[in-house]
Amino acid sequence: MAGSPIRHSLSPRLHNAAFASWGLDWASVAFEVPAGQGRALVEAVATLGLPGLSVTMPLKEEVAHACDRLSPVAERLQAVNCLVHRDGQVVGENTDGDGLLRALAAEHGFHPRGRRCLVLGAGGAARAVIEALGRAGAEEVLVVARRPDAAARAASLAGPAGRPGRAEEAAGADLVVQATPLGMAGGGQERAFPLDPELLGPGHLAVDLVYHPLRTPWLAAVAARGAATANGLGMLVHQAALALEHWTGRPAPLDALWAGLRRPGSDDRGTPSASSPGTGEPVA
Ligand SMILES: NC(=O)c1ccc[n+]([C@@H]2O[C@H](COP(=O)([O-])OP(=O)(O)OC[C@H]3O[C@@H](n4cnc5c(N)ncnc54)[C@H](OP(=O)(O)O)[C@@H]3O)[C@@H](O)[C@H]2O)c1
User: Where in this chain does the record put each Pyrroline-5-carboxylate reductase catalytic N-terminal domain (predicted)?
Assistant: First the structure.
């Protein structure tokens, strides 16, 4: 795992839980690697002969420019969250969007094909989700972001289904994905709502990619109105599962990953207790 700040990353915990469950003598550790070192990082994977590495902010974009090859998804996003060392090449993958779709399928039986989706935000996480929703056959992928140019660029990742939208259009969506940092503990906007909860209710599935806290005030307000809800832990677990599958070729032991997140005193879905004292936000 590499990125900055990285000390409170939950990913090594997930990876190591899988390795232990498989009886595999591998270890995942967090490396503090600052912006500007993406190329050196890719070269280090090749030099050290590592099977793979997870990559997080602020390196996802610069690493994409340094890989020997990109998967089609990473190519479209120009962002990499997983390096795979295969046949002498370092290949860049991006498992974030498919991680969320797998989580929604597993936890809510939700499949995007033919469904109307709305994404709040146009940053890295939003873009990965928008691309995955478009590829999975969503009928419509609306992008609501404070910068219209960013919304339009992000929406184009969904192909013909994608277009910039207005917040009020959430009422007609099946799925709403909140992909801004609003609500994140320690971010200074803990109580800010990214969307009026009154627009949602029974029949909506609302997902907040934030997982610290596990239930943001916005997610709580939306749940109180009768919408089905999910936090960001499912995406975190399933993007790690996909990375593990790329590295080993084995189906990931999901129960072990969920158990790996749990700490004494946590709730039954696992509280990410490795929160950063600086930002309060654990990072993938
Ligand atoms: N569950 C997971 O596995 C997972 C994975 C990745 C990220 N996340 C979470 O998803 C969130 C976004 O991460 P990211 O990597 O996509 O960040 P990012 O690249 O910095 O993008 C953040 C997006 O939110 C927008 N935004 C920020 N503050 C806002 C505000 N006050 N009002 C309206 N929009 C605002 C930004 O708009 P501008 O571009 O105009 O600033 C941008 O579109 C974070 O909370 C992160 O922890 C979760």
Answer: 119-184
pLDDT digits (tens, 9 = 90+) for 65-113: 999 999 999 999 999 999 999 999 999 999 999 999 999 999 999 999 9
As annotated, the binding site for NADP(+) includes 121-125, 209, 232
CB of 133 sitting under 6 A from ligand 1: no
Please name the residue whose Cα sits nearest to atom 8 of ligand 1. Answer: 209
**DSSP SS3 for 101:** helix
- Predicted TM-score of the model (pTM): 0.93
In the chain, % helix, strand, coil (3-state, to 5) comes to: 40, 15, 45
Q: Which residues sit opposite 55 in a β-bridge?
A: 2
Query: What domains lie within the chain, and their CATH numbers?
Result: 2-95+234-261 (3.40.50.10860), 97-232 (3.40.50.720)
16-68 per-position pLDDT tens digit: 999 999 999 999 999 999 999 999 999 999 999 999 999 999 999 999 999 99
Ligand 1 pocket, residue 179 CB under 6 Å: yes
State the distance from the centre of ligand 1 to the C-alpha of 125, rounded, in angstroms: 7
